[in-house]
Design goal:
By secondary structure, the chain is of the alpha/beta class. It has helices at about 25-40, 45-70, 75-85, 90, 95-110, 115-125, 145-155, 170, 180-190, 200-210, 225-230, 245-255; strands at about 5-10, 15-20, 110, 135-140, 165, 195-200, 215-220, 240. The protein has 2 domains: about 5-15 and about 115-255, HAD superfamily/HAD-like (Rossmann fold), CATH 3.40.50; about 25-110. Strand 7 (about 215-220), helix 11 and strand 8 form a beta-alpha-beta unit. Helix 1 (about 25-40) packs across helix 2 (about 45-70), helix 1 runs antiparallel to helix 5 (about 95-110) and helix 2 (about 45-70) crosses helix 3. Residues about 255-260 have low confidence and may be disordered.
Length: about 260
Amino acid sequence: MDHAIRGILFDLGGTLMTFTGDWDEVQRRGAVQMAAFFRQRRIALDEEQLVHIFLAERQASFVRAIETQREVLGTECLRTALEQLSAPPAAFGLISEAIRIYFAPEEAAWQAFPDAKDTLRRLAAVRASDGKPAYRMGVLSNATDDAVIQRLVNRLGLRPWLSPVWTSAALGLRKPQRELFEALLARWQLPPESVVMVGDRLEIDILGAQQVGMRTVLITADDVPSNQLYRDAIVPDATIQRIGELPALLAAWSEGGQGIR
């Protein structure tokens, strides 16, 4: 049976891009700018309270999403905060624009790994025996706002090689839910053993892919503390330090190699 790799599914953050700021500072700065936006639109709100309630709701939503494996959108958190503040009706009509302002500092802090675009370009150039591209390539990312991810993929110049770019915000469920991976396999019409998942989180990316029979590659470019909790229970097929190592690994697999543990 032919078990050649035909598809590559990437995580985004920590895999193709890295966060360059201080997370808490960036989140607070975005919330402060968002609160100021309402004032600029002449919406009477307690800005300090809005920042406090919104950030607390964001934190609680992360925990809730992990527990339920269902995504909680940033817009939902803002709506909840506005309701708690008994905001005027006009504020609710500005939620989408306000959330974009909130995410702007975070978007600016995400940068592609130096070798990300070159790696995608190299993989896209690989040809199968029939002369067609050897790999389908796409993204599956846990995120609380789909538009943020789509803008990042565009700004970082990754779009030409990636289809689809799917997020938990758009799909509702979060990795490692197997339904997400099964949907990708159905879209590509590929058997699981012919698709490899490349990601930085053992309990999210690697576990999710393994549940449906996909091959897995863990990337360790960014430090992920939670991986230490799962390293004995969740073992990827291979581990690489940089995304630029992926083409050589896949070439070794295609030649019958076992990859790098």
